[in-house]
Amino acid sequence: MKKTILFMLSAALLFGGCGKKENSDNPLLKEWNTPFGTPPFDQIKTSDYLPAFEEAMKVHNKEIDAIINNKEVANFENTIVSYDLSGELLGKVAGVFFNMTAANTNEELQKLEEKIGPMLAKHADEITMNAKLFERVKKVWDNKENENLNKEQSMLLDKTYKKFVRSGALLDKTKQDKLKQINGEIKTLESKFSANLLKETKAYSLVIEKKEDLKGLPQWLIDQAEATAKEQSKAGKWVFTLDNPSVFPFLQFSENRTLREKIFNAKNNRCNNGGATDNKEVITKLTNLRAQKAEILGYNTFADYVLEERMNKTPQEVYNLLEGLLKYSIPAAKKDVVELQKLLDKDQKGATLEAWDWSYYADKLKKQKFNFDAEETRPYFEINNVRQGCFDVVTKLYGLTFTERKDIPTYEKDVQVYECKNEKGEHVGILYWDPYTRASKVGGAWCNSYREQYVKAGKKITPITTVCFNYAKSPSGRTTLTSEEASTVFHEMGHAIHTLLSNCTYISTGGTSVPRDFVELPSQVFEHWCSQPEVLKMFAKNEKGQVIPQELIKKIESVAKFDVAYGMTERYAAAYLDLEYHVIKSKDKIQDVTAFEKKAMDKIGLISQIPPRYRSTYFAHVFGGEYAVGYYSYVWSEVLDADAFNAFLEAGNIFDKTTADKFKNEVLSRGSTDDAMEMYKRFRGQEPSIDAVLRNNGMKK
Ligand SMILES: [Zn+2]
Predict the structure, then answer these.
(1) Among 16, 371, 383, 533, whose Cα sits 20 to 30 Å from the Cα of 619?
(2) Residues 348 and 383 in one domain
(3) In this structure, are 516 and 472 located in the same domain?
(4) Nearest CA-CA partner of 265 in 245, 242, 239, 244
(5) Alpha helix positions (H), 563-675
């Protein structure tokens, strides 16, 4: 997942100024005299954020005033470029704050986030609805034929002008005020959704007291559950949680069907249990507000509004993509049900296969068919080896190298910092590596930035990025991953490379500021290397340093196409659900979230054994932030990445220099300096089709 910090940003009016003395001591506002201007985490206190935001917004407003009050006629440099560079301090403060609310949060920060979200939304609105500023932007836009702009500059102008129009710059005052109010409410609801989800996820634990209830579980999982129990002052018991590295292996291995059902239902019903942390009402309000917003801006639906800026330009294009794939994945999943049911029949005659049985019986079937046990591979995927393997692949493909820096402050002792250099030994950027789960961390895995790459006064500003995961740290000191988890490491590193390789001029066109349905291409394509025998030999070594056996690699390859219909279907279903929520009109306010979800899933003929990857009440991508009408981008990126990786396969070498250079020069380093499809076609020579995905998954010849 790729998170982006919102450079949205003025509520100086609301929160008055703060004393001068206080601000000059605020580490967030001072110049960072750290290596490469990295955040001084060792000095920042929670109480520093609010005054820093207030001051940074004031500074930003002054920068905007300077653009407006410029006596020269508006031109590209004095308006568009100056606007692109404005808000640098705010970006710096927001960079630290939003990284911390995800990677190292606490109740105080969460409360602050609920306050700061709407503050920033209001600030951003005041800028994008600033009539005098827009007048200048429009003047440049109207005069663009005479500006003699290059491709990147013309993309920046286009992006800037559209940003204002899409934020309501062309609306009358009454509509603008209404829009501002809606934006503030949306932000508040999104923060509430996420806070509720974190609360319910962290609050749950399945406590096991009897040893016989651990039947089927591998020793490492039992050890992990024992450690969790100790942390929760339940020594002598075993605690399983709803964090992915706990609940998923439990569902895969536990022989106890009742307990599987119990934890599965807890996971599947997060924030759907009534009470203060139930998210159904949040969804009702949020989808309605989004529909209202789209209508005020002159769009048919919120989906139309969002998709205008994507590679897939209309809801119909996305429906076509998803329906085209579901047509293959659902029949394949139904065939799998028949196979799995046979195994269940042997254990429990008369029982019907349920969602909580899938992973368990699929694993059994896999062992039977291929004599394969995913746990057999785990010793070969030690987390630091996986990281190093990732680094080595990046070096071979793109010439980047990574060296640990112990002199850069971090926010937590397990976080490591790496300096990235290019082939010439020049500094490229900084990467934070934050692998382990903890109570203060939001679930899942992501890549985020503290600073993007751009050019200021002729000087290249280098990027600072971070990858975060939630792997359970082994008490033994040797944390191992499944091959799937290792692949997630490659995924997030793919985003980090996209950030690090950026070679653009402007903040808004650089790095990962690409269309949302393009942003997962660099990450997903990088996953392909993780399963290549040639790469596995580089890093997949057990405790004794023995390389993963050839026979095991063969098995991994042969099981790769096994049980794929479930994963594909649950992802396509979630993407479809996301879209369904955003093609409704404001007058058709959703009354019953549960019924709405069911109707949407019935439309695609989803089977009861496969719930959408995210059910509505915990679909954080869509309701907790910025991925609304964006979940399909994972699907679209699969189409892109399968097609892109084929370029390396066709070259006959996964490290083919020409192909790697082309991918780096046409895609990875280009940000959004050109139309995404045009960039892709320059790399690949043609548009991608869904065939490569279907073929990779054995669903089409
Ligand atoms: Zn991603």
Answers:
(1) 383
(2) no
(3) yes
(4) 242
(5) 564-581, 593-603, 620-623, 632-650, 657-663
Which CATH number fits the domain that encloses residue 81?
1.10.1370.40
Total domains present in the chain = 4
Active site residue 492: yes
CA 446 / ligand 1 centre spacing (Å): 7
- 265 alpha carbon to ligand 1 midpoint, in Å? 27
613, HSE (Cβ side, Cα atoms, 13 Å): 21
- Consecutive 10-residue runs of the chain (701 residues): their mean pLDDT? 43 32 83 96 96 97 98 98 96 96 94 92 89 97 96 97 92 93 93 95 96 96 95 95 94 97 98 97 98 97 96 94 96 97 96 98 92 85 97 98 98 97 98 95 93 96 97 93 93 98 97 92 95 94 95 85 94 98 97 97 97 97 90 92 94 98 98 95 92 87 81
Asked if 412 and 455 sit in the same domain, the reply is: yes
Q: Give distance in angstroms: CA of 637 to centre of ligand 1.
A: 10
Q: What angle do CA 529, 448, 483 make, to 5 degrees?
A: 30
Q: Looking at residue 668, what DSSP letter applies?
A: I
Range of the domain at 260: 204-268
My answer on whether 84 and 162 are in the same domain is yes
Q: Whole-prediction pTM value? A: 0.82
- Which entry of 55, 63, 452, 492 is annotated as an active-site residue? 492
Same-domain check for residues 529 and 382: yes
Q: How many A from CA of 353 to the centre of ligand 1?
A: 32
